[in-house]
């Protein structure tokens, strides 16, 4: 008779942001706060680099790229979702945006100023891929290996609070809910065909 399987501990936290350039530093701050809370400070630098690249791509695909957007320019569809979750061995960094188009890996020459984002993600992550939830859009996710499991915060610990500038918070509405549902659907997806390394 097989011994009963021990349930895996799962910690997760998510945040919706307006798809504007300031979402990138806000997502890095979100990573720092969450990983310190989970006693995973050793992984902050790698996770910050990964989420910076994924959020930058999401803003380019669906947001406002003006470095100083006006508040009135931000509409309900300018929303991205970011999520962190851990299992005993991995940290998953996930970013939802409303575009169905997958990010494309480039092979820039030495003189190019950009285009190395997904190469960096591929270097830092065990694997990464794209998941298309039923609610629409896509979740680009990357798995980082952990040398130790995350630790849940004490029961009396205050809830995770990340204060972001007002113009970076998305307008409330349908698209914000879609981002939330897209990330939850990715979190619940356990089909093995999704967890394969991306093709070169």
Can you walk me through this structure?
It is a single chain. This protein is of the alpha+beta class and 200 residues long. It has one domain: Histidine kinase-like ATPase, C-terminal domain (Heat Shock Protein 90, 2-Layer Sandwich). Helices cover 28% and strands 18% of the residues. It contains 4 helices and 5 strands, in the order E-H-H-E-E-H-E-E-H. Strands 1-2-3-5-4 form a 5-stranded antiparallel β-sheet. A hairpin with a 6-residue loop joins strand 4 (127-131) and strand 5 (138-145). Helix 1 packs antiparallel against helix 2. The longest helix is centred in the N-terminal third of the chain and has 19 residues, at 44-62. The chain is globular. The termini are far apart. Pfam families: HATPase_c_2. Keywords: ATP-binding, Kinase, Nucleotide-binding, Serine/threonine-protein kinase, Transferase. This is ATP-binding protein.
Attribute tags:
five-stranded antiparallel beta sheet, transferase, Heat Shock Protein 90, 28% helix, globular, 200 residues, HATPase_dom, alpha+beta, kinase
Largest sheet, spatial ordering of strands: 1-2-3-5-4
Any guess at the CATH architecture? 2-Layer Sandwich
Number of strands: 5
Domains, number: 1
Give the C-level CATH assignment. Alpha Beta
By helix and strand content, what is the structural category? Answer: alpha+beta
Mind summarizing the main beta sheet? 5 strands, antiparallel
InterPro entries: Anti-sigma-factor_SerPK (IPR050267), HATPase_C_sf (IPR036890), HATPase_dom (IPR003594)
GO molecular function, one term: ATP binding
Pfam family, one: HATPase_c_2
Protein name: ATP-binding protein
